[in-house]
Design brief:
Distance between the termini: 82 Å
Order of helices and strands: EEEHHEEEEEEEEEEEEEEEEEEEE
Oligomer: single chain
Number of strands: 23
Radius of gyration: 27 Å
Mean pLDDT: 89
Low-confidence stretches: none
Structural class: mainly beta
Helix content: under 10%
Length: 334
């Protein structure tokens, strides 16, 4: 067994405990913890390094803990192993005057576990990361309010490293909530933003990826810009599918609704209750062939527009058919 305690002044500690029986053939265990005090670290970093990194200030703390155990075969190659890693970054701050950005109160917490079996391959039963920050200022006018992001990944089966075995389905989800975005030039603001996305794919032992499916919803609330236009809410639901990573058979389906859009400029005042856009396409992204199954724009009491078409070789040749059922401007001037 080995116990190792390394300390770098008051800015870092690294604790390692390891033990093995019969040189790991019977079993082995490793436990390590790394701690970093970023506030203390800045004080000892060469000023030239900080200058190259264009950082005026950094701070916070970092803790990474990993525990692993398993056994080796008679040739001292991994036979079976499990590992779990926990990550904790808290109170992270970063400021750059030259790059004009300032990050305050950032944190990342989470962990993941890994299983290895020489006969079956690798499996990640669960991975979760929670990231957040209090505020970000950048580009001398852009400000992002309190934001949180949660990411999760899971595998239902082992992924074979030998080219043989079963297909391994992988699922990934991301959920984002933001307290708003503001821009000084041009003057614009979004009161809140949320994103919920789900990605699934099948990983084959051959290295191919098939049945790629991405679904999600993006919502932005209370948009204002240039003291002229405003929107109460924009909601987009989307689905993207690909048969495999060659992207020869893909589909995109999008539905967007816009609530209470308005525009003011001098004596002009246009206000609507709602507008909706729907698009369904099928495409071969390798050769640029696109089938537009449907594009529909609907503004109640104002217009209904539909279009279908086909593009070859990224639009070098195309055909489009469209239909306008209704067109009335009376609602615009109410």
């Amino acid at each position: 067994s080995v116990d190792l305690d390394l300390r770098g002044g008051d800015w870092t500690t690294w604790l390692v405990k390891a033990q093995a029986r019969e040189f790991g053939i019977e079993d082995f265990k490793v436990d390590q913890t790394l701690n970093l005090n970023v506030n203390k670290l800045q004080a000892i970093l060469p000023k030239e390094m900080l200058k190259k990194l264009q950082l005026a200030e950094i701070g916070g703390s970092v803790k990474i803990h990993t525990a692993a155990e398993g056994k080796l075969d008679t040739a001292y190659r991994p036979l079976q192993a499990t590992a779990k890693t926990d990550i904790d970054l808290s109170g992270i701050t970063a400021r750059s005057d030259s790059l004009a950005f300032d990050v305050k109160g950032a944190s990342v917490k989470g962990g993941f576990s890994t299983l290895f079996d020489a006969a079956n391959g690798v499996k990640i039963p669960a991975l979760q990361l929670d990231a957040a920050f209090q505020s970000v200022q950048a580009l001398k006018g852009l400000e992002i309010g309190p934001t949180s992001i949660r990411s999760t990944l899971s595998m239902d089966k082992f992924y074979s490293l030998t080219g043989k075995g079963d297909t391994a389905p992988v699922a990934y989800r991301v959920a984002l909530q933001s307290g708003g975005i503001r821009s000084g030039e041009p003057a614009a603001a979004i009161a809140k933003v949320s994103l919920d996305g789900n990605l699934r794919a099948d990983f084959l032992p051959s290295g191919d990826v098939r049945n790629i499916n991405l679904k999600g919803e993006l919502v932005a609330g209370k948009l204002e810009g240039l003291s002229r236009f405003a929107v109460e809410k924009i909601k987009t639901v989307f689905a993207v599918n690909a048969s495999d990573r060659t992207l020869t058979r893909t589909s995109v389906d999008i539905k967007t609704s816009v609530l209470s859009p308005s525009f003011k400029d001098g004596d002009m005042n246009i206000s609507l209750k709602e507008a909706a856009l729907e698009a369904n396409t099928r495409q071969n992204l390798r050769n640029g062939n696109i089938d537009i199954k449907q594009i529909r724009l609907t503004i109640p009491s104002v217009m209904n527009f539909e279009a279908q078409g086909h593009l070859e070789n990224w639009g070098k040749t195309f055909s489009v058919q469209s239909k306008l059922d209704k067109l009335s401007f009376a609602e615009l001037w109410k």
